[in-house]
Every structure is written in C-alpha cells, then in structure tokens.
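Field: COMPLEX_INPUT
Field: COMPONENT_COUNT = two
Field: RESIDUE_TOTAL = 614
Field: MODE = joint
Values follow.
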Amino acid sequence: MTLLETERVTVSPVRRGTTPRRTGRGLAGYLFVAGYAVLLLAFGVFPTGYSFYLALTNDRGQFTGLNQFVKVIQDYRFAPAFTHMLIYLVMWLVTLVVLVVLTAVILRSRVRPGTSALFRFLYYIPGALAGVASVLVWLFMLDPDVSPVSRLLTAMGFKTFAAVLAPGNLPLILMLIAFWTGAGGWMVVMYGALNNIPDEVIEAARMDGAGPWRTAWHIQIPMIRQWIVYMTIMAFATGTQLFVEPQLLQTASLGRVSPTWSPNQLAYVYAFQQGDFNGAAAIAVVLLAVGLLAAGLLVARSNLFKLDEK
Amino acid sequence: MTQTTLFLTAVRRRVRPSRSLPFLVVGLLLALLLVFFVLPVIWLLLAPSKTAGEVVRDNPLSFGSFHQIGTAWRHLFAFQDGAMTTWLRNSAIYSGGSLVLTLAVSVPAGYALALTKFRGRKTLLTITLVTMIMPQATLVLPIFLELNRFHLIGTIWSVILPFSFYPFGVYLVYIYFGSSLPRDLLSAARIDGCTEWQLFARIALPLAKPVVGLVAFFSFVGNWNNFFLPYLVLPNSDQFPVQVGLNQLLTSTPSFNPVAGAGLNVTIPELALAILIAILPVLVLFVFSQRTLVSGMLAGSSKE
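Field: COMPLEX_OUTPUT
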C-alpha cells in the first residue's frame, strides 16, 4: 500500500519547479513547501491565532483583556478538570517512563533475541486499538460480570461495574488504557535505540566490571536519553488532550462521572452546550500554554531538536 | 498464557545460581506485562463467538461457536440498516484521502526544508517543530469555527483537510533527507544540468521510500483512530467514520445504556465484533510494520 502511494505521489506535486537553476533555486524551495505552508497556515497558525483572539474578546468581538480567563478559572468545574488531568499525567508519565525503559533494557540485555522479538511484538499489538476501541475493550475488562480477571476485581473489592467506575478511579483506569495502547510501541522504539549503541561500549563497561544493571544505569539509559525525553513530550501532549476516553467512561458510568472531567471536555461543554466559544477558547489557550511550557522546558534542557545543522 | 510458560522454561534453562533471583524478578515482570497486554486481545477475539448470556456466564476465555459469530455479524450489520458498512467506507475515504494529500505536500516540503535554500526556511522549520509538540486537540475548536465560516462543516473536506496537515510527517522527511542524502550528490547533479524538479523526482524520491512508508503509516493510523475532530464537524450518522460510529454503538448497547438500548440486538458480542472490524486495517498494518517502523525511525534519528 505504501508503495502504491509513493507511485501516486511522484506525479502529483507542483511541476513548476523546472525554472532555470540560477534564479530558480530559491523559487523551487518555495514551490516545494507551498502546499504544506498553506495547510500550516490554515490548520496550525490561523487556529492558534484565532483562539488567542477569541480568548481576548467577547461574543460581540469587543476586546475584554483577561476577562475570559478570569471567568473560566473561576468556574467551579475548572479546578477539578485540571486537577484530574494533572493527577492522570503524573501517574501516566512516571509509569510509562519507568516501565518502558526498564522493559526495553531487560529485553535488550537479559533475554535472547528471538524471545525478545516475540515479546516486543506481543506488547506492541494493542497499539492497533488506540482511541475508542481501547476504551470499549477496557470497559469489558473492568466489568466484573464479563471480565477475564473478574476474580481479581472482586478480590480488590470491586463487586460491580459501578464500583469500578467510581469517579476517583478514573485517573488509574485512563492510565491503564493509555499504557495498554501506547507503551508497547515505545518499548519497541527504546529497544531499537538501545540496539543502536555500539557493542564495544557495552563490552568496555563489562570489562571494567559493571554488571548489567550498572551498565544500564550508567551507559545505556544516558545514551538513549533523547528518546526518553521525546517520549515524555509526546506522552505529555497526548495526555493533555483527554477527551474521548473520559467521555466514553462517562457514558458507561451512566452519568456518575462528571461530563466535564477533563479540560477538553469542559471546553467542549462551553462551546457546544453553552454556546460560549470565547470561554472555550480561553480554556484551549490555557491548555496550549501548559503543553508548550512543559515541552519547551524539556526541549531546552535536553538539546533535543538540535539538528539544524552544518 | 502458553507463551508465558514457554518463556519461563526458556529462562530456567539459562539460570546460573548466582543470578537466579534477578532472573526470577525479570521473568515475572515480563510475564505480568505479557498477560496485561495480551489477555484483553484474546478476550476480544473470543467474545463474538458467544451469546450475550454466554459472555457473562461462561469462562471468559472459552470459545463459543462459529455459528454465533455469524449471528453477531448479522445483528451488527443490520444495525440502523447497515450503518456499520457506511462508517467503514467513510473511514476509508477520510483516511485514504488525507493520506494521499499528506504525502503529496509533506514529502516535497521536508525535502525543500532539508536540501534547498530559501528565505523563511528557518522560520518554517521552527513553526513546524512548535506545532508538532503542541497538543493538537486544543486547536480543534478554532478549526471547527474556521471550517464553519467557510461552510465546510458536514462535508468530507472538513475532515480530510485538517487531517492532511501533518507537521510530524514533514519533520520525519526533513530529518531523513537531511541525514541520508548528501548535498554533494545534488550539487553534482545540478552541474550536470538537472533542474530542481528533476533532482527531487529522479534522485530524492526514489531514495525516500522508507520514510514515505513511515509517514504513511503514522498518518493513516492516526487519522483512522481520530475521534475528536470528526465527532465535532460531522453532524449526521451516515457521515461518521467508524470510530465515531463505535461511540454511537456503545450508547445503543443495553448493558451501557439500559433505557435507549433496550430491545436492540447490539449486545456485548456484537460490540466486540464491531471493535475487531473497526481496527482490522490498522491491525494488519501493525502486524506487518513493526520492523520497518523502528528501522525507519532510528535511521532518521541517529545521525543528528
């Protein structure tokens, strides 16, 4: 399929690049990026600017300063939504980083290559069920009536589906779902990154008397640090976007989970139930700021993306 | 489960006395993760073979009958006069259409960012990196308003156009060309009289197959699974992609919605079957792509 697409693409892009070479080089560059630049303006730059505009004005287009922000922050649903997100993010990121790195190191240095490949493949497969599908699967896994681990659930004190879906359990449930779909792919990537470390380096560490764990801690993990940072940024960005997962759990809990559990859901309610797009935009801007701030910190501290160049 | 025991015996054979404790811990961790990742998949594969009653009463990991799979299939596709078929077709159109568009714009763009010089290149690159790490869902509301202003809500373009904007794809192509296509090669070809278009089409593109595959994979999978945007911009059930359709199925299932779902034939086996069908294209890609994916991602990364 990818092959097919390649063939198709070769004929489609701008053909006007065939201008004389001297004057044409800069021009050719523009023509090559033209299509992307249009999409970037339309669906990247413009929406960002537009949300700032909306967040700073009212529904009649009058400039209102920070009033929209004050309004949404004072909303009684604002603090809980962001607290939920924060609890979930901390749980999710810590679990993800620790378990993914640990498992990748184990699969790389403590397991035979063939076995390791099988494990990586099996861990990675649930990634195909991202989105709605994964939530539905986990609704079944957590329903003591049908779950294959219903004994475990009962032993932990969850006798009914309703008990499992108690609002306080949501961060944990969402973390399970996110880990189930996302962690395997990252384990595969981390394993690949570990594989890229030259054997001589590991060998030298062993000659110096380092055991497998010390090698992992002092050599392997520092050498794949950029990938760990990259994973954290991406997981953080996805974590701030919770929408469909709590939305479905809310449906399944028959309304006992709040419909504004996550900030995105709150923004949705503002926009489509209260018709207040300015308030919704203010929430989006706050989310955006949180996301960019965290990503910016990580990028700055890790030299990731320091690739430009020569 | 058998994989676990297989693995454990494999481990035991290798155990040396001094290392047996860490090996036990390591084996336990891997086995627990295996159960965690695989058990739900096995359950999902078995559920459509049982009736709703059997799913509750029987052993969760038992197989029912093939006949029952057929029944679940008929119930599922009879739901709202074959809505499932429509949803799957929509998903294919949206993901396929935006895949073509994504590749058509991001491959030349990544190439130009890596290997040509023009004013504004650095700016474009920076904006690309920033949008890449931006939480995309925060832009969905303003994009909705923008599409609304251009009267695109409810058309296929309201999904395909935003889906086609894929900065991560451009970034991957940029890294790939920047690290694997020597500038000298291009300069030499220029001296030989190649036009810029010929350089791209004859030299760069044939070398780009691995990264094109990578971008295609991420773009297709991401768009196929996307929920938020189509959920907002497509008002009618017959326009839903299958992910939004699954949401509708869930709200029609008696076990999760006793009021609205009563009397419908969509129960747990039908829902499980719907999940399986909905993820099938992505699952096929996943099964065949693991190795290529990793080599592709790391090929671009290791040479910063």
